[in-house]
Amino acid sequence: MFGIIKERFHQKYRTLDFPAKEPFLPGRFKGRPEIKAINCANCHICQDLCPTEAIQHIDGHPAIDLGRCTFCGACAQCCPQKAIAFGRNYHVASADRKALLVKAGDSAAFPTPQALTKPLFRRSLKLRQVSCGGCAACEADTNVLGTLLYDLGRFGIDFVASPRHADGILVTGPVTKNMAPALFDTYRAVPDPRIVIAVGSCAISGGLFATSSQCLGGIPEEIPVDLFVPGCPPNPWSILAGLLELQKNR
Amino acid sequence: MTDTTFAYHQAIALADLPVYEAEAFAEKLGSCLAQGLRLLCLTALAREAEKTSLLAVFTNDATQKLTAFCAKPLTSLPSLADSYPSVQLFERELFEDYGVKFPGHPWLKPVRQTPDNTPQRYPFFRTDGREVHEVAVGPVHAGIIEPGHFRFQCFGENVLNLEIALGYQHRGLEQCLLQAKPSARLPLLECAAGDTSIGHALAHAVLMERLTGLTVSDRSWHLRRLALELERLANHIGDLGAIAGDTGFLPTSSWNGRIRGDVLTMTAILTGNRFGRGHIAVGGVHNDLDAELCADLIHRLDFARRDALGSVKVMLTSESVLDRLRTTGTVSLKDAKALGLVGVCAKAAGVVCDARLTAPLRPGQNFIPAKCETGDVLARVLVREEEMRASFAMVEDDLCALEEGSPEERGYAPSPILPTGMLAVAQVEGFRGEIVHLAVTNEHSGFQVYKVIDPSFHNWQGLAMALRDNQISDFPLCNKSFNLSYCGYDL
Questions:
Q1: Smallest Cα–Cα separation from B259: which of A138, A10, A244, A131?
Q2: A144–B257: do the CB atoms touch at under 8 Å?
Q3: Which residue in B117, B149, B191, B454 has the most chain A C-beta atoms within 10 A of its own C-beta, making it the best mutation to test that interface?
Q4: B399 to each of A193, B131, B233, B234, B288, how far by Cα in Å?
Q5: What are the C-alpha distances in Å from A149 to residues A93, A101, A237, B144, B256?
Q6: What is the ipTM of this complex?
């Protein structure tokens, strides 16, 4: 008993006063990419190397679709003109799928969810998590929001054990054929109005498994998504920042 | 025909392997298993006109030699599963993917077709009788966790049988690998089981190096082992916390959740990603550390070690925790060996196994694996605690060695050209146990076969065995003590 109390003092209070204070991000953290408007000519090395076909060339400059990007950094490493750099901005969640296409010179904040300013969810947001072929990384970085540093509960956000108790679902993974029926069942079991959050490039676009015959290439159209959080996996702070956008709790 | 044996780190030409007719192949499999060799992989080589040719690779852990041989195209093979249960999943996989029949298999059902999403519905095992009841759980679970279906046959509170039906996570990863461009292979394998990104990426890199003869610098090896052991630390610390949580012992549960995050932050300082994605490269690594970063990491390591050891000590000196863990979910040494279990749950049952001992990535390392005898949840906790201590020491060694040296130039190297018709195997001890990657190359510098065997492939059977004659309320605790990967099994 005394041992536990002594250890409790040692372990200290560790919750970060987010969003008032900025979180620690390591020097090599790869956040939202910044692209310079350079002349690529015929050099498409980045496009050839990209594991998820996330890069296209628009008006002669590279553009990255964050909905497909795994933030592996191969493009930034291989570019002979150093036109691509992954910045430190961890606010990468967007309400608009199209806005995730980052073009040269883009730096404006991504659109925040309008429909979700519904006061209904502002103080209490209960989510059901559905993993549909996720590799456990997106799941782990969502789960970690419940630990001391993040303490998700203080924002009124919780993950619940039944879709009937939920205001929405948070989906991870490229949606395998084998999980599609369970995803639809869970979605339909959540009472209206309900929201859908896609966490990770797999859920948004299929990611690395976009062309797999065993996957649907992300959340199917029949399930409209309200918030996209790109990454492979997204940093927990990116997910938390996205969830707070949803609540307009900032 | 004579046996073809070769050192575990050698690549060998497929054409040099003996090829047997079906009957002789089955006999050969049986004699290898009877000699105590461990089956690393039984897989299809090619399929032509409804017939499938097979490849088997065994390891002799004592001599560190592999034995490999092939079967001529066949449609049916006498099953060995009844005598040697460690073969049964490989047989079911070949049955599901290639339609190979295995007469004599006790229960030839698919591995990854889910029971409710397939034209060929298959029945679950059922126990009949008064007061026997059935409990079905999943695929979607109550927490934030991957999907799977569990079917319990219960007599009162006691579990008579647990059947685990997986496949919900099946993404077709091995198929994707065969088609993927070279630059997508490592990212795909980093997602084989997301919490083992380093383990699977390292297995792929080692396999590519064995196929091409690429060498890796000493410094890169330090940077690889550093990442691998950090991965083990983060997961073991998280698992110990999760076990504390399911025991109802909240202090260690909440502290370890945070300390796990501190270790992931160390991985992110090294690699930019909390799971170490993009760190491992074929022929080396992508990230190096200067003296300043090394010092920062050593400083963080000291704090994490003090916090983790203190947190786990509090749990392991609580008599109520120990009482809950003792004799719960026991797997016997005999069962562990018969099922071919690997990693934490095998070591907890007294099996001496660890790829760091039986297939070291660098020669000259004298590794002593953790070991317990009792095979219960407590044994799995103690194995994790011991491995955690060992990993802290290895991480410190690597960081000190890196601090003394100086960073190397690291560029973006194109994927190496692969030789044709070669077979190689890589064994890497991930935090769950031995990861096996096996490849046979084709004439286009790609793969004819690429098999990924996560430790979870073997170990889910262990969880089912652990539950026998335990209470159904012991399931969450047993499940946490195994902490197996769903997508690693389903791929």
A1: A10
A2: yes
A3: B191
A4: 52, 59, 15, 17, 11
A5: 21, 31, 11, 18, 11
A6: 0.92
Quote the tokens at residue B93.
């996989």
pLDDT in tens, B166-195: 999 999 999 999 999 999 999 999 999 999
- The residue out of B98, B121, B137 marking a domain boundary is B98
**Residue A10 has which token pair?**
């040692």
Residues 194-223 of A with CB under 8 A from B: 208-209, 211-215
Class of domain A115-247: alpha beta
Q: Determine contact: A54 vs chain B, CB below 8 A.
A: no
The burial class, CB within 10 Å (0-12 / 13-18 / 19+), for B266 is buried
Domain of residue B31, residue span: 5-98
Task: Name the residue type at position B228.
Answer: L
B38 forms bridges with which residues in the sheet? B59
Query: Using one digit for the tens of pLDDT, what is the confidence trace for B216-265?
Result: 999 999 999 999 999 999 999 999 999 999 999 999 999 999 999 999 99
Q: Which helix (H) or strand (E) holds B72?
A: strand B65-74
β pairing state of B284-285 and B12-13: unpaired
pTM: 0.94
User: Which chain A residues have a beta carbon less than 8 Å from that of B117?
Assistant: 177-178, 180-181
- Separation in Å, CA of B172 to nearest CA in chain A: 6
Residues B66 and B211 in one domain: no
Concatenating the DSSP letter of every residue in A87-126 gives: -S-----BS-SGGGEEPTT--SPPPPPSGGG-GGGTS-EE
